[in-house]
Amino acid sequence: MATYREIHGKAIKSISTDPSAPTDEGQMWYNTTSDTFKSIVSSSAWSSGSPMTLPLAYRFGGGTPTAAFAAGGSPSPVAGVKTEEYNGTGWSNGGDIGTSRYSGGSAGTLTAGLIYGGYFTPPASTKGETEEYNGTAWSEQTNLSTARYSQGGFGTQTAAVYTNGIAVPGVLNDTEEYNGTSWSEGNNSSTERYDIGTAGTLTAGLIFGGGTPPPSVVTATELYDGTNWTNGPSMNSARMQLGGSGTQTAALAFGGRYTPPGSVLRAYTEAFDGTSWSETSDLATARRQLSSNRSNTGNSASLAFGGNPIPATGTMTEEWNTSATVITAAAWASATAMNTARKALGGAFGTTTAGLVAGGNNTSNEGIADSEEFDGTSWTEGPNMNYGRGWMACCGTQTAALGSGGYDQPQQDGDNKTEEYDGSTWTNGGALSQEMYGGGGFGSQTAGVKAGGYNNSLPPGNVTTQTEEYNGSAWSTNPNGMGTGRYAMTGSGPATAGLVAGGYQYVSPAGQTTKTELFDGTNWTTGGAMNLSRKGLGSSGNSQTACLVFGGNASNAVAPVTYSGYTEQYDGTSWTTKPTMATGRDGVGGSYAGTTSAAWVAGGQSSPPAAVTTVEEFTGETTAINVKTLTQS
Questions:
Q1: Are 479 and 523 in contact (CB under 8 A)?
Q2: Does the global pTM surpass 0.85?
Q3: Could you tell me which CATH number the domain at 45-308+316-323 has?
Q4: Which residues make beta-bridge pairs with 31?
Q5: Residue 364 CA to its chain's centroid (Å)
Q6: Which of these, 262, 342, 453, 632, has the minimum number of CB atoms within 10 Å of its CB?
Q7: Which residues contact 444 (CB under 8 A, 6 or more apart)?
Q8: Residue 275: which region, alpha, beta or left (left: phi > 0; alpha: psi -120 to 50)?
Q9: Half-sphere exposure of 603 toward its Cβ, with a 13 Å CA cutoff?
Q10: Common-topology check for domains 45-308+316-323 and 332-619
Q11: pLDDT digits over 242-265, tens only?
Q12: DSSP string over 70-102
């Protein structure tokens, strides 16, 4: 019998600590500490990704797993023009498509994308429009020869295919090819079907599954060489309304539904190697009418996003990876609740292991004076503030906190009070120039900033653009105000490199806003807009270039959402989505001095309208080498 050295050209190592590099994949070693033989192996699995902003199904998809687009979608005509872009960690808003629709064909990349056909209702109409995407904007191109819908597209922006689908009066099997300028007729496939899975290129494509009259669901696969269709091996599980990606020799099929009538949802994933389909790891959540990035880079990486049932799976993203690395997705998890229910925190202080909440309002909007400290495990009562109030502008740490302004129901107005905390005692600081609540706070106890806010005596709209700066004892007014007056926004960063995001504005259009403004210590400039407009949100990160915001009273293109768990991260230029909180709420407090990978959110108001004690902790994505212990059986 050949030895390990004879087969691999090297001996088995004896080491006390396991290797930690993916490049060690396949290497075998003896761990002297655990007295076991081990190896690093590759595995394939789906993991949770950051959600989309809009809960939609039947979206047009294209690109790669680290640079993808999702356009259009059902059921909302308003949201049916929206595009979202994925950068490998989260989604952000892209350019609107020209024609609202869903369930058409798509191809190409994020910077050279293509969508065509589709369906729109009301009124019900089948679409033939073609649009190209340059990564910023969509432009109209030549229409399909035959308007149709129900998926069926693959290829690139200059060499695409649309085959099968539904048109008036029925199901098709004809094929059209796009050359970057116009559509021309290709040869028909062998079977008329719709809601199929697709992958590949114009000269090496494939379709699989789908529905056929009268109706039924099939497992059939057909291969396309740019001229002719040939029958390929059948999938193991019949389904329609499924996702697909990859190439003709390395494709993935995932999700879908089993049968009409009814909606028996599938989480099944199958991999195609050019010869046969094999079952592999299932999606975490079964769904239908989902979309993918249509990647032509093989079946080692892919995305599955959106789908029915809505809203449960409409924003959901899952990532498929084949590697020697195990990915643990970023997530919010339940943490120990506070002792006192409170909302309108306007901000909070500290980190995940040294946190502080102070003030707030109860369900009746009465001011709360008590404070609580968090050690990462439990909350303990601290000394009361001198004045009970909510909606303070806050910044700082557990032992050097600053809170200014605020709201207390008996007065039904703001106040101008400032308090400082040193870890044991609250003391009064210098007063703001005017009574104010809901301002955005950032900086530190000795170099703080309060931006904007609400004052009943300020017409019109009662909000201000005013900026005030604190030096540790007194406030001074900066002559340069924000571009837009608002309140109930959140702040992040030091006094000379801060930001405020979101809030409520009274200028047209009045309501929650997505606006971000950046402060350099002297002037304000416009930053990247958030993906979801909202007020009463919290933040973590204390940075202008690495800020996490979460929760709030929100609205989007589908419908208003009173209590949101939506989370976004800012990199200094743009916002991308992150995993959603378990409990949606507004008027929350956040770990101001935390990070984008270690944060907490506390309190707020949730449904039914009431102040809560709920606390959640956020942990960023982590990776680890897939080390396996070898056993003899």
A1: no
A2: yes
A3: 2.120.10.80
A4: 15, 36
A5: 34
A6: 632
A7: 395, 396, 400, 402, 494, 495
A8: alpha
A9: 33
A10: yes
A11: 999 999 999 999 999 987 666 789
A12: EE--BS-TTGGG-EEEE-SS-EEE-PPPSS--B
